[in-house]
Amino acid sequence: LYLNQPLDATSMVLYEDHIDSARQYSIADELNIPIFMAGLFAATGIFLAIFCNCPQVYTLSPDGTQTKQGSLFTGAISKSLERTDFLPLHDLNRSGPNLEITVANELPEEEFINQVSLLRTKRIPNTEIAINTDDQLVVYSPPATPVSAVSMNGKNLLPLVSAADTSQFDFSDFPMGSQLNTATFSFSKSDFPNGQPLLVINARQTEWLESIAEVFFNAFGDQFDRWNTMMDKVPREKYEARTAERGLSMNVFIETDNGWQKVGTFHNAGVNAQKKMALPIDISAISGETINIRLESAYKFWELDQIGLSANWQQISEYVEVPMISAVNEKGEDVSARIHTVDEHYAVQPQAGSAITLSFENTAAEDEIYILKGTGYYHHIRNYEHAPDKPFIRYMRRNQQTVTQELSLLMDVMQQNATVLSKQP
Length: 425
Hints:
The protein is built from 7 helices and 23 strands. It is of the alpha+beta class. It has a 6-stranded mixed β-sheet with strand order 17-12-15-8-9-18. α1 packs antiparallel against α3. The radius of gyration is 23 Å and the shape is globular. It starts with a strand and ends in a 9-residue tail after the last helix.
């Protein structure tokens, strides 16, 4: 890259209008460099604060303070990906007769809220709650920690993943070529006599993944809305298979007597906070005394805080729905009829600043917990003015399995090794 002014060496931020010209040297000669680089540096230099594109949930205390609880239906970026999500609520102030909850749009997106309800269920002592890969809640006993945890380059991960704390593994081992990043975790089989322990991870997707996604979005240019419409028709199964193949989702493998076998995929964690997710593991095909589990992700796309196996667990099947008092949007409109049941009627939050405030009767006993249930999807909003980068889009389609990993590695190298070149003669 040939710049018209020096690079700011302290912030390492490079803006598009600082670039005079660029010379292609390798595989990039197939790409539309001006458009591709604009998208690349929108994501790397400025590092767009996209974060978790999904409705954000807050609880309101009687004194007016808010507590952020999390988000709903993360990753449901099109109508075909619409899904139901559960969000256990924590740190609630139960002193008043009612509970107030806000579902807010805080980002450049259009949110389609199909149904929202509040549930209560019994709290089982000495257990925790996670959401499984079928979008159902499970309750489980404290999980066993791994006896060993090793990254693909041999790094000991036990200090990073044995407890829910501030230390995480970010799948940043530098791989060879387009190989996805992996880590292997071992458990003692004798701790799980029932034959089907529950794999539990506390993890999140990263802002790095969102920045890579912005490069892809940028490639569609002024046809981005058309891409949104096309995505509405892509079957969920096809989309999730593609994200698993590219490493946007986290794949799970176990080592059996017949080699490594894929047993599932964690798809939607979001980036706002660590999320507890669960997957039952059938260990009947393992004859040895060790359970080896491998997690797979694209480079730096996931952050793993804790991993464990629980011997005792069950799906939560008994809920009581809490009566809703009201549901009002930011304009003062009553939207309760639109979010009462799952149907074709939506409460639409068209832009950042849109919100629904819900009020429920505070009916839970001290030994019960509240869980917010929500169904819906959302669309990203982008206002690109340039034409689509058709060569890059074709390259993405031909190299679906490797392009995400390659681009992530490229951007990381560029961030860490930015060099100022003198103006081309």
